[in-house]
Structure formats: C-alpha cells, structure tokens
Amino acid sequence: MKSWRDNVRRVVPYVPGEQPQDQDMIKLNTNENPYPPSPKVKEAMKNLDEDTFRLYPDPTAHKLVKAIADYHGLKESQVFVGVGSDDVLAMAFLTFFNSKKPILFPDITYSFYDVWAELFRIPYERVMLDERLDIRWEDYCRENGGIIFPNPNAPTGAYLPLSAVRSILDHNRETVVIVDEAYVDFGAETALPLLAEYDNLLVVRTFSKSRSMAGMRIGYACGNEEMIRCLNDVKYSFNSYTMDMTVLEAGAASIGDEAYFRETVEKVIKTREWTQEQLRRLGFTLKDSRANFVFASHGQCPARELFERLRQNHIYVRYFDKPRIDNYLRITIGTPEEMKKLIDFLEHYLAKRKGER
Ligand code: PMP
Known about the structure:
This protein is an alpha/beta fold.
C-alpha cells in the first residue's frame, strides 16, 4: 500500500552537544564563552521598547549589517547576516553548492557539513586530514563543486596559515570556497583581506564564541557584492525576517565594544595556554589549538572512559565516537577556576587509576 511515508525527505540530523540543566556543573562541551557578553549588550536590551514588537523587524537587518561592515572596513552590500553561522552556512550551501561535482571538506571537521549536503542533496567528498590531523591544502587542488573548511578546524583546533588558504583559492578560481571562521578570533589569521583578490571567497563568522552570544544566534558572511546578493535572494525565498529586533540591537552593541571583546578573547587564550600546559603534564597529547577549545588524547586512559567519569562528576566535555578521533576529548576553555577543577579531577583520577593497576 502506498503511504505518505514513501515521500518523506529522510535525514539524519546533526546532534548538538547537550545543554544539561545541572546547577553545579562545569560546562565545557559546546565551545561557549565562559564570560558574559559586553555590558553594552545588557544596556541595549534595557533600552528596548517592547511596543515596537508589534511591527516586523527590518528585513535587511540594516543596523547590524552596517555595524559589521564598518567594523571590517567592508561595504554593507558585502555582508549577509543570519540566525547563527549555522543558518548562514546552510544558506550558503543552498546558494553556492549547486553542481553535480562533489563539494570537498575535511573528513574530520564540523559535523554539520555532511548533514546539509545530505539535506540539500549535494554530492560531497571527505578529504582526509593528514596523519597529524592537519589540512593539507594540496589535497584541495582537484575538480570540485565547491570547498568548505573551518579555520581553525573543529574539533581539532588546528589552523591553516593564510598562505595555505591562498593556495587553495589560487587552485580553485571557478568554485566557491567558504572559510568558516567560527573560532578565528582566538588566534588564527582571517581570510578577510583576501576578499579583495578572490571573487569566489566567502568568509563566515559568528557571535557565538568570541562575542559570548551563542544564545542570541548571530552569524554573518562576508563576500563580494554579487555573492551576497545571491545569498539574500535565497534567504528571501525562504524567510524574510530571520533577525528579530532584539538581535539587531544586541549585535550592534557588541560590535561597538572593541575593548571588552579584546579583553575577553585574551582571557580565554591565556586560560587555553595554561590548560594545554597542564594537560601535557598529565600525559595528554594535544593539537596546538588556536580556538577556544583543546583536542586532547591520553596515552594510557581511553577518551570514552574519561568522558564518562567527567560526566558523572558534572564536568561536561565533548566526545566523538568517530573513526580516527574516538580517543580524543574536545574540551572548551572555561574560566581559570573551571579549568583548575578539571585539571585537579583528571590528575586525581589518573593517579588513582595508575595505582590500581
Ligand atoms: N562552524 C563551526 C566550525 C562550529 O563549530 C560551530 C558551532 N557549533 C558553528 C559553525 C555554528 O555556530 P553558530 O551557529 O552558533 O554560529
């Protein structure tokens, strides 16, 4: 018998890290920022006039687009905003990856890429990271329907120097290359200066990490005017009012507080360096991270065991049960106090475990 079930678009959804409601937990599993957003954001929220909520928001999100464009020294027509960079990336996949040739992305990377490719029926190939879990730019010099990679990569935290990003662009003038810079503010080099040279480059950013605003859902893309027009055409064919009134104010206020932004990022970087040092001392091997998380594997103790023990003790980190990375933990950088508690727990647990053997 025929059924509506025969015609359902079946997908295996992306699974985000859990958001436990535990009061006394240490949450190091979704790469959130441990510090609050700029006080200017709080002020902007206080000044909101709820009466205006009866109106639709500005569909062009002009206030936010202008703030971002001015900040990066770009034209407003070079900036596209969305509901977190997930929304921006989804729109970019739909807009630019429309070829029969496969798009390319790393085998170990942000696990939403293959989900969008499946959802939009875009052919794709995963390009193996090298044995040190680094992207090799040479592997992206072949026929493709588009390229996307995060820089720094997730979940490894490893970054690709700008010269390598440039090499990928030089060998791919005819397809769109998306650089997902979700974590770039924590110490990698941005590809934004290359926009002037390459008309097929799209740089995607988020307010979720370095601007402490994961809950507000703000992401954006920078590219040439034609690309941004193409993105907007698709977005307006999907949902005109993606950015609500509160978000436009909060986002613009955050961009307006450069000092706070720098200070927060510096604090996270400093804590990351301390954490890496401590983890190495405890016998972990690590990728040298340029993000707000570290990717660590212990020689003697399986990552899954550590993940479970940490969880039982209300310390949440991320574990991926996937080939090549199933012995790693991805640990978000929290406050110095949180990281100290993590290190103390690991030190104690590993010593006890060693003693029992
Ligand atoms: N890109 C990468 C590489 C990420 O790790 C994340 C965070 N999950 C995102 C994009 C999406 O972040 P958001 O939608 O919060 O901007």
